[in-house]
Structures are given as C-alpha cells and as structure tokens.
Amino acid sequence: MLRGLIKGDNAFVPTAALRVAVRNGVDVAALLVTEQGRVRGDADIVFDGAPAHPSGAVRLSVGENGTVWLETDLTSVEREITRVLIVASTEEGALRDVRGLSVEVFGPDGATVVGYEVTDAGGERAMVLAELYRRSGGWKFRAVGQGYVDGLTGLAVDHGVDVEEDPQEVLERIPTPAAPPEAPVQGLRPTRDQILDMTPEQIRALALAQKQARAEAPDQAPLTASSPPAPKPDPSAWTCGPVFKPRTVTGRDNDVITVKNLPHGPVMVELALKGDGYTGLWPLDESNAKGRYLVSTTEKDFRGRVIASVPEHGRLRLRLEASGSWQVRILPLAEARRLSRDRLESWGPDVLLHTGGTADVTFRYKGDSNFIGHIYRLAGHTDPTTLPKPGGSVVSEIGARRETLPLPEGPLLVYLSAADGPWDARLKDVQPHSSGQEADGPAKLPEPRGALGWLRRAGR
Fold first, then answer.
1. Lowest mean pLDDT among 57-61, 179-183, 303-307
2. Which of 68, 167, 251, 252 pairs with 206 at a CA distance of 20 to 30 A?
3. Mean pLDDT along residues 56-81
4. Residue at 232 is within a domain
C-alpha cells in the first residue's frame, strides 16, 4: 500500500470518485450516517442485496480473489450524510480467522491514496473497518477497526438500523419449506422474532432447506427476494489527472514558486492575490524558460484557477509577478467545480466538470475583458498524465454579456482560461445520458431491499 495507516490514524483523501477495495473474502456493507451517527433508513445501507445507494454516491460490486469494491463518489454524497462507514462481517467464524483483512482506497487515476490493514481482529463477527468523513470542507479516511462480538445486530443497533422490520417483506415470495431441525418454526414462515432468536445452526439449517426447496421447485419464485439488476456504468465516473493532497504556498510580491513531489500530469493552480497592478503567472521549464502564460491581468485582488502540467520529475515551478500578498494552491483536477441546474457563482478563470448528457449552459459574465472557455471531453481518456485535445471553444467573447451555449455529453471539463471578473453558470434543458441515466444526477435505481436481508447474517 502507498500509505498504510494504523488503527485510529486518519488522512485526507480527494473529494472525488474513489474506489475502495475490501479484502479478503468477507461480507461488505456501507452505512451512510448523519452527524448523529445513525442511518436515516434502510436506503442508507448498501450491501449485496441492495448494491447501490439511491443517490448514486456509493455502489458495491464483487471482484476477484475475495475482493469487494465500493465505488464512492464523494462529490455526490448528500449533505445530510457526514460519514460513510465501511463494514465487514463473516458468515462463519471470527474476523481473526480472516487473512489479509484490509481496506485500500484508490483515486480516479487508479493510484493508491491510503490503506489500512487490520492486524488485531479477535472474536468479532462484524467490524467497522474504516470510515470516510467530512472535515474542513473536504473528506478524510480513518482506520477504525471497531469490532462487534454480537455481530451485525450490535453494529446495526449502534447506528440506528431498525431491526424490528417485518421479515414478511423479504420472505413474501418464499414457498414454505420444511422446518429445519430444532428450528423454532414448524411448517410456517419464520416470524421476525423467530428469525432474530435463531441460533447460527438454525439459520444455516433454514438456508439449506430453502436451497433444497429451490432445487426441487425450479419454476417457483426464488427463495429470497431477487437482487436488483446491476446498475449501468455511471457516466460521472471519469479518470483524468493525478490525485493527491492539495498543496499550499503563500508569499508576497514577485517570486519563483517550487512545489516538489507532485504526481506527473495536469493539475489546477489556484491563485488568490490581495493587491493591484499587473499579475502574471508562467510555468518554468528545466532551463528556467517561461512557457505560455497562465495568468496575465491587471485586475485588482485577482483570484482564479488555471491548468498546468507537472513534469515527469514531479517538480512544478512557476514564475509569479505580482504586487501584494498571495496564496497559491495546487489541486487535482478531481476537485473541479461541478456544473448543475443550480447556479454556480465564481470569479476569474476556472475549471468546471460536466458529467451528464447533452445540455445547455447559460453563462452570465460581468467583466470587461475576455471571457474564453474550451472543452476537454474525458470519455474514454484513461491517461492520467495528459489532457485530451481540446474540442474547441465553448465561449469566446469580450465584455459583459449573457449567453447560452450547447454542451455535448459528458464527462467533460469546461476550462474558462480567461475571465477577469465575476460570472455565474447553470445548466438547463438537460437530457438523459445516453447510458440511460439522468444527465446531471445519479441513475434511476431500483428501490433497495430492507435491512433484514443484511441483518440475517447477524444470526450466523
């Protein structure tokens, strides 16, 4: 792992679409909880019976070699949700018997961001392995390692899961099987209380009886509610540019800025200046020659975001000419602001992300000089060290104006390379994505099953 944490440690992760790998051969779930540490309902539990959250922010899939994947788009997590808990449980035995129990987080470029290997598991049958949580306007990852000897039931109660749900919802289409040996049910469907009171042996016997009933009556409805169909690929999933923890440099007046140990590829450079006069920003090559300017303005108190490229050696050098105090932040493209139907207000050059289908974007620009934007289409572009070739100008005007322009299907970046003044943008006439998803929102997913299917493991 690129960065291994120990229990209790935490680290910032990019606010982006991350992939979380949970190893090795355990059952995995994600609980989306509020500031009170509780789910709002069954829909906030993502597990194999309900593999996608209604918001589209968390999706679960099973990979090879005992790995379970959680696709976690932190930009889509609802505001009420403050933590995403990553939960592991076992069908048989204890977690101490699981070899290589670990969590690893990957960024949009496929590189490992952070990881945690559980080395002190005991007799627990369920554990909160880790959590992604909001902090200081961003997201962090914490290695938790909190186990529950009483399994998923104890974990569920701690986080507000309703264990009193009527199991008839899940068992509605189950043909009545013969009662398992020593089960508390004789020829009847188990009631809620009976299921929760069953011993591990009784639960396994009931599962075996149901499996046999399936085999003997193939034309009957399945014994457990069928899992919803796998969701279509999320068009908001995109890979462009390296992912890393943002870097900040501050100073005053003219300077040469050097930021080391950055990953190779395109990044955002955010400049905020307190002062007036001329402001210019250029990249420097290995011979200290200036490249094409990134910023060239006489605006007072300039601020904005531009795109630069980090060389293979990982050292970004910038020449800044300015009068006054300034702050420069180096950010991954994954932190680009997202276009939506809501009005986005900003100032100066910027980098915007559009992930939906075809749409119109309305810009209102209040500056006096150039307002120029280009499109970079990200679909199919998998090289994190480069940007795709620009697909032409989306806007190129001078002076204050209001204009509505068509956007092709995303994912794509809109790079406003020149904008000396305030502006706002919003999408309208948004069409469904060609994959069948809504243009600027998550897929329309089947309603997830109740929590009981997940909690049935508590009795094993």
1. 179-183
2. 68
3. 91
4. no
Return the amino acid letter for 446.
P
- In this predicted structure, which of 50-54, 177-181, 234-238, 336-340 has the lowest mean pLDDT? 177-181
Q: Are 309 and 396 within one domain?
A: yes
What's the full length of the chain, in residues?
460
CA distance 181 to 243: 55
Which is it for strands 422-428 and 316-321: parallel, antiparallel or unpaired?
Answer: unpaired
**Do residue 139 and residue 27 come from a single domain?**
yes
Same domain, yes or no, for 124 and 188?
no
pLDDT score for 396? 85
> Which position has the higher pLDDT, 124 or 450?
124
Rg, C-alpha atoms of the chain? 26
Residues 383, 283, single domain; the answer is yes
Percent of the chain having pLDDT more than 70?
77
Of 135, 166, 197, the one marking the end of a domain is: 166
Three-state DSSP at 334 gives: helix
Side by side, which strands form the sheet with 393-398?
Answer: 337-338, 350-354, 412-419, 370-377, 393-398
> Comparing C-alpha atoms, which of 66, 57, 54 is closest to residue 84?
57
Letter string b/e over residues 19-51, b meaning 16 or more CB atoms within 10 A of that residue's CB:
bbbbbebbbbbbbbbbeeeebeebbbbbbebbb
Share of residues in the chain with pLDDT > 90 (%): 45
Burial track 406-424 (b if 16+ CB lie within 10 A, e otherwise): ebebbbbbbbbbbbbbebe
Per the structure, how many domains does the chain have?
3
Residue 454 contacts residue 448 (beta carbons within 8 Å): no
Tell me which residue has tokens 């997830």. 448
* pLDDT average, residue stretch 40-48: 89
In a domain, 439, yes or no: no
Taken in order 181, 186, 187, 193, the sign of the CA dihedral is: negative
Co-location of 399 and 380 in the same domain: yes
Q: Tell whether 189 and 211 lie within a shared domain.
A: yes
455 inside domain: no
Total-model pTM: 0.49
Do 307 and 364 reside in the same domain of the chain? yes
pLDDT tens digits, 275-316:
999 999 999 999 999 999 999 999 899 999 999 999 999 999
Alpha carbons 285 and 318: distance in angstroms, whole number: 9
By mean pLDDT, which of 29-33, 125-129, 196-200 is the weakest? 196-200
Domain of residue 109 covers 4-166
Q: Are residues 261 and 129 in the same domain?
A: no
Backbone phi, psi, residue 177, to 5°: -90, 170
